[in-house]
């Protein structure tokens, strides 16, 4: 069994119309043994950027603290808030530095940035465990249920979804996919990022 499957967990990010959503399940286990039903995999980076980290639970905590330090250093040096694209490259370079003894995490990033025309542009990206970036215009997935998430998302996602429709789509995608994966599930948490606010909802799922 892969070390990436040791603690389970899955994350998905989706693009909407001037909004973006990121969601993860809440289960953390030791393979088939359930340990926690409220494990945090998604972290706020700024008001408009969120980072999801499926993978080895100990590395989630370590990498989150390391990225928080690097982000603070960037903010102090540049005297401005980091852009989603810049943050994605920051995550990528951090992982690539440790490529010979990698963090067993596949990060998923979601955020929105303001364009010069005044519109808000959604941004999503994912990397592998040594930082190879994958940009997408529809959705990105990671974790033990990623193959199931791809299948459901391909069928449900549509372009230019409004925030409420995007929430419904990402929720149905995640809940249906993790029901088919033994290492993910036990409910999920969904963040929908719009230009005005962040809507966070926790959903209950099967606990068997």
TrEMBL record:
<protein>
    <recommendedName>
        <fullName>Proteasome subunit beta</fullName>
    </recommendedName>
</protein>
<keyword id="KW-0539">Nucleus</keyword>
<comment type="similarity">
    <text>Belongs to the peptidase T1B family.</text>
</comment>
<dbReference type="InterPro" id="IPR001353">
    <property type="entry name" value="Proteasome_sua/b"/>
</dbReference>
<dbReference type="GO" id="GO:0005634">
    <property type="term" value="C:nucleus"/>
</dbReference>
<dbReference type="InterPro" id="IPR016050">
    <property type="entry name" value="Proteasome_bsu_CS"/>
</dbReference>
<keyword id="KW-0963">Cytoplasm</keyword>
<dbReference type="GO" id="GO:0019774">
    <property type="term" value="C:proteasome core complex, beta-subunit complex"/>
</dbReference>
<dbReference type="Pfam" id="PF00227">
    <property type="entry name" value="Proteasome"/>
</dbReference>
<comment type="subunit">
    <text>The 26S proteasome consists of a 20S proteasome core and two 19S regulatory subunits. The 20S proteasome core is composed of 28 subunits that are arranged in four stacked rings, resulting in a barrel-shaped structure. The two end rings are each formed by seven alpha subunits, and the two central rings are each formed by seven beta subunits. The catalytic chamber with the active sites is on the inside of the barrel.</text>
</comment>
<comment type="subunit">
    <text>Component of the proteasome complex.</text>
</comment>
<dbReference type="InterPro" id="IPR029055">
    <property type="entry name" value="Ntn_hydrolases_N"/>
</dbReference>
<comment type="function">
    <text>Component of the proteasome, a multicatalytic proteinase complex which is characterized by its ability to cleave peptides with Arg, Phe, Tyr, Leu, and Glu adjacent to the leaving group at neutral or slightly basic pH. The proteasome has an ATP-dependent proteolytic activity.</text>
</comment>
<dbReference type="GO" id="GO:0005737">
    <property type="term" value="C:cytoplasm"/>
</dbReference>
<dbReference type="InterPro" id="IPR033811">
    <property type="entry name" value="Proteasome_beta_3"/>
</dbReference>
<dbReference type="GO" id="GO:0043161">
    <property type="term" value="P:proteasome-mediated ubiquitin-dependent protein catabolic process"/>
</dbReference>
<keyword id="KW-0647">Proteasome</keyword>
<dbReference type="InterPro" id="IPR023333">
    <property type="entry name" value="Proteasome_suB-type"/>
</dbReference>
